[in-house]
Amino acid sequence: MKQIEWKITPSPFIYTRLSEKNRILVLLVSLIPMFIMLYFDRDYKAFINIGCATLGVFGAQFLFNFLNKKVTLYNSSLLSGVLTAFLLPTTLHPITVVFVSFLGSFFSSSVFGGKGSYWFNPIIASVVISYIAFPSEFPSFLIHKESLLATGNPLDVLRFDNFSFWTNDNSLVNFLNTTYFSHINIKIPEGYITLLWSFPSTIPAIRYNVLILFSSIIILTFKTIDWIVPTISLFVYSLLVYFMPLVFSNIFQGKGDILFGLCTSSILFLSFYILPDCSTNPRTTTGRIITGLVSGIIFYFFCGPGGSYNGAIFSIVLINVFTTIIEKIEKKY
Amino acid sequence: MKNTIKFQRSNELFSYNSIDSFSKEVAFLPSVAFVPLQQHTGISANEIFSPGTTVREGQLIARSADKNSSCHIHSPIPGVIDRYSTITLPNGKLGKAAVIKLSGSFDLLGRREENYLWQNISATEILRVLDDMGIINTFEHSFPLVPEIRNRKLSDSRILAVRLYDMDPTCQLDSLLFKYEQHSVLEGCAIIAKAMDVQSVYLVYNSNKWEGPDLEKLQKLFKDRQVLLQKGHEKYPNGNSAQIKKIVQKNSKTDDINPLCIDVVTALSTWEAVVKNVPPLTRYVAFLGTAINKQLVFKCRIGTTIGDLIEECGGFKSPPSCIVINGLITGTAVYDLDTPITKYTKSVHVMDKDSNPNFDSYDCVHCGYCLSSCPEHLDPIKIVTHIRKESFSKDIVSDIQACQFCACCSMVCPSRIALHHIIHEASESIKRELK
Predict the structure, then answer these.
(1) How many CB pairs lie under 8 A apart between chains A and B?
(2) Closest Cα partner for A114 from A70, A51, A55, A59?
(3) How far is A211 from chain B (nearest CA, A)?
(4) CA angle A223, A225, A231 (to 5 degrees)
(5) Are B277 and B315 in contact (CB under 8 A)?
(6) In what order do the strands lie in the sheet containing B79-88?
(7) How far apart (Å, rounded) are the C-alpha atoms in residues A55 and B44?
(8) Does the beta-carbon distance from A12 to B358 stay under 8 Å?
(9) A5, A8, A18, A20: best mutation site toward chain B, by most B Cβ within 10 Å?
(10) Which strand ranges, in their side-by-side order, compose the sheet holding B200-205?
(11) Are A17 and B365 a contacting pair at CB < 8 A?
(12) Do B372 and A2 touch (CB under 8 A)?
């Protein structure tokens, strides 16, 4: 018989979506521009953190698999490790990074039952554990209500606080304003380039917002993530920030700085890389729309006009709790 | 050219390479034909001759073992029965086949074709001819056609529904055959309508507009039976029995209907059997895929191996990684180039490594895509979880029975869980238990 080594599997032989393995690969590839920027910024500590976090998650996954006699995708551990490292301060000691990422991943897997079953994101669990253990390592609030009331603009607050903007920010903003935006009567303020391109922070996830936007195009094009939750949450948060920059106050109604809000609290990164995690999302479209709405509102209440990284992290914790409730209701109906 | 089809529910899209031309190429005669004794769903036919016997072209070589679930098998070529051996069948199973070595003269090939006036043949005579010729209904499960007609004939509402396109759109053969063999196909439908004495005939098409003869001509062909032209759903799934029944149900006054659903291939083989007086010795088969040099539709002899036919397509363009029979959505992967063409073979997809997707299966990631894509609004992963736990509540059993096995859930699953197969297995075991 003329036999060849072929794959013999059940149908279908045509798929509309990427496999989980390829989905993780696309997500990892979408992070490459940020890796390159970290390299150009000579932030080698971030790379050490990535290695350490991956080691921690791998260890946790291996132990979990060994104890439960399970076989799971180890490349999902790689993605979890990378994302954990992106959300942890680079000032943390490498051993701490290994420990917290191991603890977060193992806790999530063993309590909730591994990928697809957990309702509490293991990456966020690691970040929360490290925040509880080392709160001083995490960035504090960038702007306070009083300063914002005094200046009226979050970027001005940063300027008064002698925040170190990117050195080329001024010249680039001038160039863009005179060459392009002047034709459509728009003037972008100084500081936007820093927000988008190289925001100085110990958290790598906040730094390269323009690259996150670019990566989001890739991951949405490849249908790697579901678009409903991230887009609705970003839209709701942006609307709330624009119309009511100060929570429970209508002082600067319609004058909120959306970009500042999105870029300084890691909301962009969290919306595209953490929020769409299937395990922590409802399965129906209605459930996802509600989750998106709730997420936007929670982000707004926890981060306000922006500049609150810790607020964004704890928003995810609350969103995960809400999602569980939404899912319970979803199952009933 | 690429064709893109949307799912009925959700906005999922899938594309496949389409064949535009239909050149009616006739494949070379096989020097050795592997003729399976079971080319239908049911019980295998019983061999008549012992090895060493000379058989003529079209001669009966295996007799139906059962009136309701088996059918006759004929020799596709003249020759000598060399042996009976167990071979791989296109449905992935193993089965007994007569190995016939080509020799002697042809009784049908090259001779003047007969042309019987089917209008003058009685319904009973048509049924006898179809039974003798071993015609099967390839609509969904390849059951013998005559028992299906006889069962429906006893019911009050005798309806014939003809699907003029493919159940699995990637297969493409039914659509092509209707386009290029329209007259024979419609005559075949009319023959079945006469044999069953149907009250109404539903011709279900899915092109933008009806491309066949006008209603007046059809009415004449179907001898004043009610003929209804119905447009099928444009989105997938649109061709399985559940979908066709829905279309018929829309126009029917009674809820309790059980139409006889047939496809283009069944109509064409009926026409060949009754009008040409030829048993199913040949089949049109579409050879598609990225790993073959030329995509073709062949008229080939039953028993020809797919390996020989691939060679006629110019061989492999790139190393094949998977060969799929009868469509990429609902078809079966085979591992042997000696797998023969049978009565139920419609298409052969030869896929290379690039077009063959990743098949490793993982745990469910809770994405919910299966839930949003199911045309019956079922929750496939919930059903599968219950099946795995062997907890069959009333709701789960009714969900299993409602499944159309369209594979929409499996097509969207990023964890590559064969959801519809697991549900199908459970459905079969429920059916067995109910019996």
Answers:
(1) 137
(2) A70
(3) 26
(4) 105
(5) no
(6) B32-36, B94-102, B79-88, B54-55
(7) 58
(8) no
(9) A20
(10) B226-231, B200-205, B159-163, B260-263
(11) no
(12) no
First to last CA, chain B: 47
**Pairing relationship of beta strands B159-163 and B200-205 according to DSSP bridges:** parallel
Nearest to B14 among A16, A19, A279 (CB): A16
Retrieve residue B363's tokens.
């745990």
Q: What is the pLDDT along chain A (333 residues), one digit of tens a residue?
A: 444 556 667 889 899 999 988 999 999 999 999 999 999 999 999 999 999 999 999 999 889 888 887 766 678 889 999 999 999 999 999 999 999 999 999 988 888 777 777 788 899 999 999 999 999 999 888 787 777 777 777 777 777 777 777 788 888 888 888 888 888 888 888 888 888 888 888 999 999 999 999 999 999 999 999 999 999 999 999 999 998 888 767 676 777 889 888 988 899 999 999 999 988 899 999 999 999 999 999 999 999 888 899 999 999 999 999 998 998 888 777
Please state, in angstroms and as integers, the Cα–Cα distance from residue B86 to each residue in B75, B99, B260, B331, following that order.
17, 10, 33, 21
d(CA B423, CA B370): 13
Sort out which chain A residues have CB atoms less than 8 A from B349's CB and list them: 13
State the helix-helix crossing angle for B182-196 and B173-180, rounded to 10 degrees. Answer: 100
Cis peptide bond N-terminal to B237, omega within 30: yes
| A332 interface with B at CB cutoff 8 Å | no
Place of tokens 């949405």: A220
CB contact under 8 A, A18 and B170: no
State the distance between the two ends of chain A, measured CA to CA, in whole angstroms. Answer: 55
| Sign of the alpha-carbon dihedral angle for A175, A176, A179, A183 | negative
A4 contacts chain B (CB < 8 A)? yes
Enumerate the β-bridge partners of residue B262.
B162
Rounded distance between C-alpha atoms, residue A327 and residue B7, angstroms = 25
Chain Cα centroid distance, residue B367: 33
Sign, CA dihedral A194-A310-A312-A59, equals positive
Which of A5, A8, A15 to substitute to test the interface with B, most B CBs within 10 Å? A15
Does the beta carbon of A245 lie under 8 angstroms from any beta carbon of chain B? no
Q: How many CB atoms lie within 10 A of CB A43?
A: 16
Non-local CB neighbours of B117 within 8 Å, separated by 6+ positions: none
Question: Contact at 8 Å (CB) between B228 and B161?
Answer: no
Query: What are the DSSP calls for B339-398, one per residue?
Result: PBP-TT--EEEEEETTTS------------HHHHH-TT---HHHHHHHHHHT---HHHHH
ipTM: 0.89
Residue B10 CA from chain centroid, whole number: 27
Alpha carbon separation from A292 to A15, A81, A230 (Å, rounded)? 27, 25, 7
Q: Does A89 touch chain B (CB under 8 A)?
A: no
For residue B15, the tally of other CB atoms under 10 A from its CB is 12
Which value, in Å, is the radius of gyration of the alpha carbons in chain B? 22
Q: A7: buried, middle or exposed (CB in 10 Å: 19+, 13-18, 0-12)?
A: middle
Closest A-chain CA to B367 = A278
Angle between helices A94-112 and A74-87 (to 10 degrees): 130
